[in-house]
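Entry: serine C-palmitoyltransferase
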Amino acid sequence: MVSVAFVAAAASVATGTQQSTMLPPAAPDDGSKHGILRTVWDFTFRMGLRYIKNSYKDDPFRTFLEVCLIAFIIWYITKQKYNIGTNEIVLSEKEIDELVEEWAPEPLVPELTEFEREALDKAIMIDGPNGTKVRLASGSTSKPVLNFASYNFLGFIDNPDIEKRAIETLRKYGVGSCGPPGFYGTLDVHMELEKQLAAFIGHSAAILYSQAFTTTLSVIPCFSKRGDIIVADEGVCFAVQQAILLSRSKVYWYKHNDMSDLERVLKDVNKQLVGRRGKNALPRKFIVTEGLFQNTGDITPLDVLVDLKRRYKFRIILDESYSFGVLGKRGAGATDHFNIDPHEVDLLIGALSLALGASGGFCCADKDLVEHQRLSGLGYCFSASMPGILTVAASDAIHALEAHPEGYLNNLRENTALMRNSLKRIPGLQVDGALESPLIHVRLSPEALVRMKRSGGAWTKTDIDRVLTELTDEAQKDGVLLTRAMYVDEHERLLPNSSIRICVSSAHTRKEIEKCAHAVKSAVSRITSKKR
């Protein structure tokens, strides 16, 4: 720091007071006010000169440094300031009016195509509670229809025991907390469910999110940032794709469920990092995939994935939204299905709104990673916490699954096998997805499209979508509710072929499964005969 004495001496030189050094020794104090001030001044000045001589005679660098600092302060104070208004463009009233007239705002929502308008007009509305049987708000009949369009894999949506407990919870906790978890939104049931999820999965800790969709959107950008690397499956669903986009990481895609192509990409990525220097010399590297793919019904080979992770030093982010409660002996997901230690998966994401019939999502990870999300997970910090009623519903569903895993899971697998075998016997249909997957995609086979006449040339995706919509309408007439799989076409990384998505539930009976297959067969027969 610049010494006070040095600044005082410099100031005295600048103001011409240096001549005071020629003054005779201080006169004795005569007791007057003027005499006291002169005595103090003389003493101070002499001590300042003595300090400067002693401080700077053997330290020229200090003198140089302080002179430079004073020069910088003077330059900074006297330099010309930047005027932000120097580039202002002044328009006349006429020019402003002309610009306003020429301006044409873009629509907030793009115009719907003819087919999109048709699909919107035919949108199905359920009148009453959801479940394996539902009543439709519109339709030719008021009778309940079998619901094969809901992700109610274990039948917990209309479970009477869970419904009873939910009503009791509603009276105790109210509708919602109306606050984020880190402020005043955390309830005792939230903490209990987090412990229960971690124990059920077999991981170190868990964190709850209030919405399933935003769980993935929050977890991936929370850990993978700009400069980091993500290697992702081309077939991941829209939520995972958007989460990867939000992370702003360097992204490499590998062919859907192709472990040979994944290994090729991992080798290329590591090769690019050899000899790399700088602050991003060691970026975080993640493999991102789904346990059970929403868009295809395939199951990722997690055992091979873990082996590649160890070999090439990557971390795994696994979205188990559709596999949690479905795969494995206990229904704990892909890690349970392949008998893999859950700690091999660095970040395990799941949904409570699908198989468990509640709401929200969760992430299981090591304790430090979970605590990091409590401070940096946007979906956790800035969203109201999960309502107590849905938290208890999810907890009760896990308790029920733990108490009777064979009853729920064996029935689900038997129904899935029966549905797949019945659909495969229908001419003109192509049944896709893993054998254990209750999420089944049904497509018109290429042979069926060839047999069906179409004026105007080759079949387009819109043409096939329109035929599949007619097929679901025909099935609805037979008392079976199906849905066509829909995608955000412009933003899908790998747009799947048009399909009808059939969701099997353990709550469906054998007779209901056969009725669904028969309705699909009749609908295909009527549609294909009409198009010939």
